[in-house]
């Protein structure tokens, strides 16, 4: 895990929005959204934007990257913060989560991740983490 300001403006990739016309993963840091984009709670975005503009402690985004060198990660937490950083025109603080030993994702990895967050597999089905895990399960099946 590392935390640092993004080296430049981030490219936001929203799989279902079909808004990315041309983009290459090795060109710039990109985050794939895992929740509604743009975020629906404009009040939350405004509060984060005001906090960012005021300076001081910056709110952090949390993203999962396959390897330490990866230029593309999944935004797990911080959709409202990312929108606020964009509005404030400030490079975001990104916490990068990277597996200690990178390897292809396996179904039993998903089962362990789900178990780490819940006693019941159905508990997270409607939230962001649950949707990400379900999507990863569908892609690996």
Alpha carbon gap, first and last residue: 28 Å
> Which word captures the global form?
globular
Helix content bin: 25-40%
Query: Order of helices and strands, N to C?
Result: EEEHEEHEHH
Secondary-structure class: alpha/beta
Kindly report the spatial arrangement of strands forming the biggest sheet.
1-6-4-5-3-2
Q: Biggest sheet, in brief? A: 6 strands, mixed
Helical element count? 4
Low-confidence sequence ranges: none
Strand content: 15-25%
Radius of gyration: 16 Å
Q: Summed up, what is this model?
A:
This protein is an alpha/beta fold. The protein has four helices and six strands; from the N terminus they run βββαββαβαα. The chain has a six-stranded mixed β-sheet.
List keywords for this structure.
141 residues; alpha/beta
Give the SSE map.
Layout: E1 2-5, E2 11-13, E3 30-33, H1 42-54, E4 60-64, E5 72-77, H2 79-88, E6 93-97, H3 107-117, H4 128-140
Parallel strand pairs: 2-3, 3-5, 4-6
Antiparallel strand pairs: 1-6, 4-5
Description of the molecule:
The protein is α/β, with parallel strands linked by helices. Helices cover 33% and strands 19% of the residues. The chain is built from 4 helices and 6 strands. The protein has helices at 42-54, 79-88, 107-117, 128-140, and strands at residues 2-5, 11-13, 30-33, 60-64, 72-77, 93-97. The chain has a 6-stranded mixed sheet. α1 crosses α2 and α3 packs antiparallel against α4 (128-140). It is globular and about 45 Å long. The model has no long low-confidence stretch (mean pLDDT 78).
């Amino acid at each position: 895990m590392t935390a640092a300001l993004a080296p430049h403006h981030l490219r936001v990739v929203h799989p279902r929005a079909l808004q990315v016309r041309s983009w290459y993963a090795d060109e710039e840091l990109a985050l794939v959204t895992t929740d509604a984009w743009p975020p629906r709670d404009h009040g939350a975005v405004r509060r984060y934007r005001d906090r960012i503009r005021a300076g001081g402690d910056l709110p952090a985004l949390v993203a999962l990257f396959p390897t330490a060198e990866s230029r593309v990660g999944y935004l797990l937490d911080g959709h409202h913060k990312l929108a606020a950083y964009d509005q404030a025109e400030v490079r975001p603080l990104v916490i990068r989560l990277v597996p200690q030993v990178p390897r292809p994702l396996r179904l039993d990895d998903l089962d362990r991740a789900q178990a780490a967050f819940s006693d019941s597999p159905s508990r997270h089905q409607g939230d962001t983490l649950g949707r990400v895990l379900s999507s990863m399960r569908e892609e690996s099946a």
